[in-house]
Design goal:
The chain has six helices and twelve strands. The protein has 266 residues and is an alpha/beta fold. The chain has a five-stranded antiparallel sheet with strand order 10-9-8-11-12. It has a four-stranded parallel sheet with strand order 2-1-3-4, covered by helices on one side. A three-stranded antiparallel sheet has the order 6-5-7, with no helix packed on it.
Length: 266
Amino acid sequence: MPLLYVTDLAYPARGRRYCDEDIFLTSRLREHFDLALCHPLDAQRLMPAFDTVIVRNSGPVIHYQEAHDSFRAAALATGTRVYNPLTGRGDMAGKQYLLDLTAAGLPVIPTVDDPAHLPLLPPSPTYAVKPKRGADSIGLAFTPHPDCAPGEFLIQPRVDFAYEVSFYFLDDAFQYALYAPDPSRRWELTPYEPTPADLAFARTFVAWNTLDHGIQRVDACRAPSGELLLVELEDLNPYLSLDLLTPERRDAFVASLVRSLHSFGA
């Protein structure tokens, strides 16, 4: 099965090397697929020659929004198989889901998109404000008095969390979890053994997203009350931190990904 692997090997990620992960993954996937790599700006032009396009560490689409929108529209119009599928309701569709989940009463950091709606949030001395189309903390600011254009920014109370934790899923199956014990060092991760309650929390959002195939990362924080709150549901191109896994767990993930891609392309 010809597979087009979309990545930006030169993207300067903060605190981690995206390119190393993609070099490793493609070295393993080429044992099972006829595989080629391309930059996200070239994906639309090259995809007709491939059965499936897998989008991996391609960087925040805000840096190439017009090209991404064009690729997405062309893939939907032609029925091109894109992995993850373009029906994701998380980050690949923008940040509206944080507002939707807040309105639904699910365990997410409470979010509004209009300063006039601040009374709907828990009182906070400081608020996080970030662009709706942002990613990777681009444009993030903290202020006691949010004053931004309605509908263009997300506003959340700043949470004094104990740590952040990420749950990694392939299709609907849990794979592993990693966490940052020091909140000031987000990408200094270590293995995390989730409790049944932790996994139930993460599965809530995987189920909500309704993707039958693909890789999802559920990012959460441990609030002062002890509960987990969703920070982000990454379903476009989540970084996997595979270098932090044991060889056995890394091999198991790759084997699961191969099976998923074969099933997706069948």
